[in-house]
Design a protein that fits this description.
Keywords: Signal. It comes from Ascidiaceihabitans donghaensis. This is EfeO-type cupredoxin-like domain-containing protein. The chain is mainly beta and about 120 residues long. The protein has a single domain, classed as Immunoglobulin-like, CATH 2.60.40. The chain contains one helix and nine strands. The longest helix has 15 residues.
């Protein structure tokens, strides 16, 4: 009986002590889009923005809370996701004919919807 309890305690301890790991999300920065456009994240995750264009592009949240800084071709930058951070981001300085951001992306907290 003690042997069974010891085994159960060991198994339970393994599950209880298993740490939760942050996920890394890769976002391709293209001249006219982000891929994926929407990233589903949790606080503590990281977003790696990788410039896959031939131009220098700066990715910035719409309110200016965070930025990658200028990313040259084939350069990348990592942003750590924090609770309550600004979720919408754009190519800084790139607008459409109406003056609205031409390239947009979204950070959503939680899991991706099931289809």
């Amino acid at each position: 009986m003690l042997r069974k309890i010891a085994c159960l305690a060991a198994v339970a301890g393994a599950f209880i002590s298993t740490p939760t790991y942050a996920a890394e999300h890769n976002i391709l920065v293209l001249p006219t889009a982000y891929f994926p456009q929407t990233s589903y994240v949790s606080a503590g995750d990281t977003l790696e923005f990788a410039n896959s264009s031939l131009e220098t592009i700066t990715v910035t949240s719409v309110d200016g809370e965070w930025t990658t800084g200028p990313l040259g071709p084939e350069q990348s930058a990592t942003i750590v996701v924090t609770a309550g951070m600004s979720r919408d981001f754009i190519h800084e300085g790139v607008t459409d004919e109406n003056g609205d951001p031409a390239v947009t992306g979204i950070i959503e907290f939680g899991s991706a919807p099931l289809k």
